[in-house]
Amino acid sequence: MDEKGDVLIEKLKLFLEKTLRDSGKDGFTLGLSGGLDSSTLAVLLRKSLGKDRVLTLILPDKDTPLEDMKDAVSLVESFDIRYLVIDISPIIDSFLHVLGQSRDSVDKIVLGNIKARVRMTIIYYYANYMNLLVAATSDRTEYLLGYFTKWGDIAGDVHPLLNLYKTQVRILARKLGLPEKIITKPSSPGFWPGHKSEEELGAPFEIIDKVLYLAIDKQLSLQEIADVLGVDREMVNKIWERVMKNQHKRKIIAPPAYSFMYMENIENLLKSIEKKEVG
Questions:
Q1: In which residues is Mg(2+) bound (predicted)?
Q2: Among 76-85, 153-162, 189-198, which range has the highest average pLDDT?
């Protein structure tokens, strides 16, 4: 892992440097939630480009867990990353008021999507104002599942993590030296208090990533996937149904144009699967 991790980081660094150079912009900005993906990307950008070319925006709402705020601030201060903290609660409340709604009356998914789009509006404000590119933080797992807000958290000028599954981002985070607390923190879009990705998706990311990898990268049938992984076929079906029904969301985004063979490092997935296939 160490050697391939180094290769991956170097390729990402070259990709980011070239993207920035070709754009004529002064750096990157991104939203930082204190979760795995945004924290990993923030540190990757800082280590690749230096402090002066990275601006992180911490954009809490009144429903944002205090612990996530603390994690985000602690991360940027530990890695010496520029940051701003802006409370978006007044914007959300004003938006809902204009629409004749309130936090209590509006559907929680609708409210979560509003928050994501307000955050992206603020991120693009700073990008325009400071001549920066927006770095989107979504990973390959979220992209394939359509587990993002259209024109919200998926929006960006560049998507550095879009070729990496969630479990691969976790490996990359360790390689970059992120705190273990952030690496192992349960993923959450933060749409409502206690919102956890794996609970909503119905399976742990370790399983989801393997299903997606086998279905898309290895082109196995759903039944073959269930047999290889030793999981219930219904779970595989539900994951694939989410992929298919959210095709319309993926049409707005293309994965970044850098290439490397890193797929075998999903928790040593390929080795274990190859053994089963041969056996």
A1: 37, 142
A2: 76-85
Task: Determine if residue 272 is labeled as part of a ligand binding site.
Answer: no
Residue 249 assigned ligand-binding role: yes
CATH of the domain at 27: 3.40.50.620
In a domain, 274, yes or no: no
- Does 236 map to a domain? yes
157 is in an annotated binding site: yes
Q: Is 195 annotated as a binding residue?
A: no
For residue 22, the enclosing domain spans 2-269
* Distance from C-alpha of 262 to C-alpha of 265, rounded to nearest angstrom: 6
Q: Residue 166 annotated as binding?
A: yes
Look at the chain and report how many structural domains it folds into. 1
Annotated ligand binding at 94? The verdict is no
44 annotated as belonging to a binding site for a ligand: no
Q: Is 6 annotated as a binding residue?
A: no
Residue 34 assigned to a binding site: yes
- CA 174 – CA 165 distance, rounded (Å): 15
**pLDDT per position as a tens digit, 172-228:** 999 999 999 999 988 776 666 766 777 778 888 999 999 999 999 999 999 999 999
Does residue 86 sit within a domain? yes
Q: Are 123 and 134 in contact (CB under 8 A)?
A: yes
Is 142 annotated to bind a ligand? Reply is yes
In a domain, residue 278? The reply is no
59 is an annotated ligand-binding site residue:
no
How far is Cα 184 from Cα 128, in angstroms, rounded to an integer? 34
248 assigned binding-site residue: yes
